[in-house]
Amino acid sequence: MEREKKLYLKTFGCQMNDADSSKIKNLLGSMNVSSTSNPKEADIILLNTCSIRWKAEHKVYSELGRFKNIKKTRPHVIIGVGGCVAQQEGEEMFKKVPHLDLVFGTSNVNRLPEMIKKVERERCHVEETEFFDRPEPLVYPAPEEDGMRAYVNVIRGCDNFCTYCIVPYVRGREASRPAEEIIEEVKILVEQGVKEITLLGQNVNSYGRDLSDGIDFPKLLRQVAGVGGVVRLRFTTSHPKDLSDELIAVFGELPNLCSHLHLPVQSGSDKVLSFMRRDYTAKGYLDKVEKLRKMRSDIALTTDLIVGFPGEEDDDFKKTLELMNEVQYDAAFSFKYSVRPGTAAAKMKDSVTEEEKKERLKILQDLQMEHGNIKNGQEVGKVHPVLVEGESKKGDGMFMGRTSGNKVVNFKGSEEIKSMIVPVKIINSSANALFGEYQLIH
Ligand code: SAH
Ligand code: SF4
Ligand code: F3S
User: What are the beta bridge partners of residue 102?
Assistant: First the structure.
């Protein structure tokens, strides 16, 4: 038998990449490859990359630079790049990074074992970034490292072409996986001990549009929620324009569907939203928020926001702050607009200066901090069911887990309650986390 090889895999970007990395580990695991966190002892070094913003893309090149010496001293090491930068750049990457062996696209993860064998055999550059019409055939992902939560891809790609966004170019057209395949995967994950399933897609609301059997996302949610052992169900991401009344109604129907929705708004100005080609207005968005809160009064809402989009004036930015005040998000990810090659917005004049972008981002993040403090403060005194993920990373003996609203709770716990759902009374809060006391059940 071949000797065991070591894989160093670093993942950047969103949950799609996290899910693909689980798949990669699973695929290579069956080739007698095990993981290591030390690139110096690895035989295979892979970066699963993100190109959503300029910074993310450039991080990849500086990471790759670090591996040049490894390749010099241990030439048998295979260095590969996958994910969205690989998809965007293709063969060009070999010119920029000569010590690179392998480039695989976002549709080519299943081909990785073959590609690695080819590099071993022929010691040549190997590149595959071709898109396929259908999602890749099923590969059962190993559960996330913590063993109790797992992502399940339901739809690949995106057809929305928001003017700032590179995703449709690097993930291809929308393609849904058949429901039976998804259900089969969920059943296997539950058997492996997974308690929380997150259904994934750039816009899950489009699920089923390309299938002929009449299935749509609300129907899929009901089916997955009905699989025995799915204690918690989440999904991400939902485009506001496609958040239907029926999907909102599902929050009233399914008790195991968690009380959290990530609903990226991007801007509160109708003018900017139309420049972004988002296809909703601030009012339309707020109406949906109101309906959601009627359906699930405790629903936590999180969002993504971009500041400094071309044409965003002070007045537009103020409208974003107004919308934030209206909604009071539990948490928000906010970014300075970053020009992406090939997108429609790349042709617009980047009219907001770096200084203004910085200033707006700071104002927005300060406001979000206030809202985070208010929202989390409202949890104090309540008892929440918490899925215990394990010891907190700080190493202070505290444990951490998440509420149904996806809020992190730190509390004194013990190893026996790991991966259980236990009641925790919230006694304190900050803008980003809750602190609680585990309520012993007698
Ligand atoms: N599919 C999801 C989001 C995918 S990208 C959705 O439609 O909401 C995650 C977030 O990155 C986006 O919501 C947006 O806020 C941000 N983003 C995308 N492209 C960007 C760019 N060019 N500059 C800055 N932020 C960007
Ligand atoms: Fe990008 Fe828009 Fe698609 Fe989201 S919906 S991935 S922001 S193009
Ligand atoms: Fe990044 Fe690709 Fe996700 S660009 S955000 S890793 S889909």
Answer: 80, 126
* Separation in Å, CA 343 to CA 313, 338, 349, 416: 21, 11, 13, 50
Give the pairing of strands 408-412 and 155-156.
unpaired
This prediction's pTM: 0.95
CA 52 vs CA 93, 202, 343: distances in Å: 17, 13, 11
DSSP H or E segment with residue 248: helix 245-253
CATH number of this structure's domain 5-128, picked from the four choices 2.60.120.260, 3.30.70.2570, 3.40.50.300, 3.40.50.12160: 3.40.50.12160
What is the residue extent of each domain of the chain? 5-128, 149-377, 383-438
Q: 383-438 architecture in CATH? A: Beta Barrel (2.40)
Decide whether 5-128 matches 383-438 in CATH topology. Answer: no
In degrees and rounded to multiples of 5, residue 401 shows phi and psi of -160, -175
Which amino acid residue places its CA nearest to atom 4 of ligand 2? Answer: 202
Whole-number Å distance between alpha carbons of 157 and 84: 11
Q: What is the CA radius of gyration of the chain?
A: 22
Protein residue closest via CA to atom 15 of ligand 1:
304
- Please identify, by atom number, the ligand 3 atom nearest to the C-alpha of residue 56: 1
Domain 149-377, CATH: 3.80.30.20
pLDDT mean for each 10 residues of the chain (442 residues): 88 93 89 93 97 95 94 95 96 95 94 95 94 65 74 94 97 93 93 94 94 94 97 96 97 97 98 98 98 97 98 98 98 98 94 96 98 97 95 83 97 90 96 91 58
Q: Cα separation of 149 and 234, whole Å?
A: 10
* Residue 320 near ligand 1, beta carbon < 6 Å: no
Is ligand 3 within 6 A of the CB of residue 105?
A: no
Burial letters 29-64, b for 16+ CB under 10 A, else e: eeeebeebeebeebbbbbbbbbbbbeebbebbeebb
